[in-house]
């Protein structure tokens, strides 16, 4: 029952994001997050506590420029951790003006499965350089998992979305370009640990090759407060459901739960 392995992989597919375009990257104004932001999630498989996930943003000086360094970890604990050890770490170094990554790190340790890889993004040559697989040509605005998540928060969710609007998304993950479509369904009032707040609900678009068979197989609710942080995730795995819920946050850029005016 490798809860976090399954959920991390499928959530990664859901979150991977960029506007697939041959245009050169342009600055994207960021009003959604800031250095110091910290998010923590409790993960359950059915009624069983499975572990936790954390995401945080820092600043790093490289050469003469400053970059965001974002980190995400996922770990099992409790009963599940006693027989299904998972300790995954993702990092991304992101250009502050464009939101695009210059480096991506994936460090996976799941029982007997260990994988480490780094990817450098060379925008001038239009390539990704992987320690594992070498060079690969990529679209100009290609993102990795983490930068995709933060890019969506700063450049997509603040727009006036229409019901059933489909967003085309792509990302470089596990040495492959993944393309997936997600659909905005509606704004809902959602109960959280911190009270009821307005949230944007997204589901996958179901196609022949989709890992999901029904829209309700994967649902993500993002706070509609200008921060656009995921507050609730529901994903069917077999006969049960993986549940990820926001349990702690620090240093959000905007007041949590305050309605966002577009």
Kindly state the mean pLDDT as a whole number?
85
Number of strands: 14
The class by helix and strand makeup works out as mainly beta
Q: Sum up the overall morphology in one term.
A: globular
Q: What is the domain total for the residues?
A: 1
Q: Report the biggest beta sheet as strand number plus sense, adding barrel if it closes.
A: 14 strands, antiparallel
**pLDDT below 50 for ≥5 consecutive residues: which ranges?**
1-10, 15-22
Order of strands, main sheet, comes to 8-7-6-5-4-3-2-1-14-13-12-11-10-9
Q: What distance separates the N and C termini?
A: 42 Å
| Radius of gyration, CA atoms, in whole angstroms | 18 Å
What level of helicity do the residues show? Answer: 10-25%
Task: Summarize the topology.
Layout: H1 3-15, E1 38-45, E2 48-62, E3 65-76, H2 78-83, E4 87-95, E5 101-110, E6 113-122, E7 127-130, E8 134-137, H3 145-155, E9 165-173, E10 176-192, E11 195-204, E12 218-223, E13 230-237, E14 240-250
Describe the structure.
The protein has 3 helices and 14 strands. The protein is mostly beta strands. The chain has one domain (about 5-250). Strands 8-7-6-5-4-3-2-1-14-13-12-11-10-9 form a 14-stranded antiparallel beta sheet. The protein starts with a helix and ends in a 12-residue tail after the last strand.
């Amino acid at each position: 029952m490798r809860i976090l392995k399954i959920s991390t992989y499928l959530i990664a597919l859901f979150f991977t994001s960029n506007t697939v375009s041959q245009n050169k990257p342009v600055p994207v104004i960021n009003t959604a997050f800031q250095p110091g932001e910290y998010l923590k999630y409790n993960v359950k498989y059915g009624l069983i506590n499975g572990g936790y996930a954390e995401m945080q943003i820092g600043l790093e000086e490289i050469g003469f420029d400053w970059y965001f360094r974002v980190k995400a970890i996922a770990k099992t604990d409790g009963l599940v951790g006693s027989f299904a050890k998972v300790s995954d770490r993702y990092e991304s170094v992101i250009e502050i003006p464009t939101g695009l990554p210059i480096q991506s790190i994936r460090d996976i340790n799941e029982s007997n499965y260990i994988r480490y890889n780094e990817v450098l993004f060379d925008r001038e040559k239009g390539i990704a350089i992987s320690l594992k697989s070498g060079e690969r040509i990529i679209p100009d605005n290609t993102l990795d998992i983490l930068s995709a998540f933060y890019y969506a928060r700063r450049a997509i969710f603040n727009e006036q979305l229409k019901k059933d609007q489909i967003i085309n998304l792509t990302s470089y993950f596990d040495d492959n370009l993944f393309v997936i479509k997600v659909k905005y369904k509606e704004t809902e009032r959602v109960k959280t640990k911190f009270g009821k707040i307005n949230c944007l609900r997204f589901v996958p678009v179901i196609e022949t090759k989709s890992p999901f068979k029904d829209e309700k197989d994967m649902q993500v609710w993002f706070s509609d407060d200008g921060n656009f942080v995921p507050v609730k995730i529901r994903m069917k795995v077999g006969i049960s459901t993986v549940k990820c819920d926001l349990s702690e946050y620090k240093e959000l850029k905007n007041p949590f739960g305050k309605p966002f005016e577009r």
